[in-house]
Amino acid sequence: MNFVKSYLICGTLIVLLQACNSPVQEKPIDTDKVIRKSLIETNKYMRERNRELIMAFLNRAEWDMTETPTGLWYMIMVQGDGETVQKGKQVIFAYETRLLSGKICYSADTLTPKKIVVGKGNIETGLEEGLLMLREGSRARFIIPPYLAHGNFGDSQNIPGSAVLITEIQVLEVRR
Questions:
Q1: Is 21 or 80 the better-scoring residue by pLDDT?
Q2: 3-state DSSP assignment of residue 90
Q3: For residue 154, what are the contacts with CB-CB under 8 A and spacing of at least 6?
Q4: Is 53 in contact with 164 (CB distance < 8 Å)?
Q5: Which residues pair with 73 in a beta bridge?
Q6: How far apart are the first and last CA of the chain?
Q7: Distance (Å, rounded) from C-alpha 150 to C-alpha 154?
Q8: Rounded to an integer, what distance in angstroms lies between the CA atom of residue 174 and that of residue 96?
């Protein structure tokens, strides 16, 4: 019985002594790094989902389009022979932008065309990338994923959040 008492007393002392030791210090979590990693993973996932959506649409529409490294899809239907579109030049063009559902969001015809200076950031990133492939007289079709257009929030007018856009364009004039 004395042995049991001694054993219990020693065991209790060991437990108490270990409890007095300072706790193991865990490395602090860099919450900014965790959040950044989570956002990057989410963006990769959304980019891949949009790509799958676009590829399914292309398959149904039987359009043969090419994808750029940024994710813009394009089909140059007529390559013009005029001045090349470049940053800093004014481009006058007719266009129609619609959703994958076919709903027209914006358009400008040849009588009232749109005018922009390339590189000034006054159009969607994807559309500007597409324009830089063209020349005066070109006609092309672009499929622009949300991250190259209006993103997760849309434009608060005609384009909803996370919308994939189809833009058909005709370059009427390129000015210096």
A1: 80
A2: strand
A3: 160, 161, 162, 163
A4: yes
A5: 67, 143
A6: 103
A7: 5
A8: 19
Do the Cβ atoms of 76 and 138 come closer than 8 Å? yes
- For residue 55, the one-letter residue type is M
pLDDT at position 114 over 70: yes
User: What are the tokens at 71?
Assistant: 């994710």
Stated pTM of the model? 0.80
Q: What is the pLDDT of residue 113?
A: 97
Residue 38 identity: S
* CB-based contact 44:100 (threshold 8 Å): no
3-36 pLDDT tens trace:
556 655 655 656 555 655 566 667 777 888 888 8
169 phi/psi in degrees, rounded to 5: -140, 145
- Strands 73-78 and 104-108, sheet pairing: unpaired
135: Cα separation from own chain's centroid: 26
Tokens encoding 114: 């749109």
- The residue to which tokens 């969607």 are assigned: 124
**Phi, psi of 30, rounded to the nearest 5 degrees:** -85, 90
Per-residue burial over 77-106, b = 16 or more CB atoms within 10 Å of its CB, e = otherwise:
eeebeebebeeebebbbbbbbbebeeeebe
The answer to whether the beta carbons of residues 96 and 37 sit under 8 Å apart is no
Residue with tokens 């993103």: 151
Name every residue whose Cβ is closer than 8 Å to that of residue 49 and which is 6 or more positions away in sequence.
none
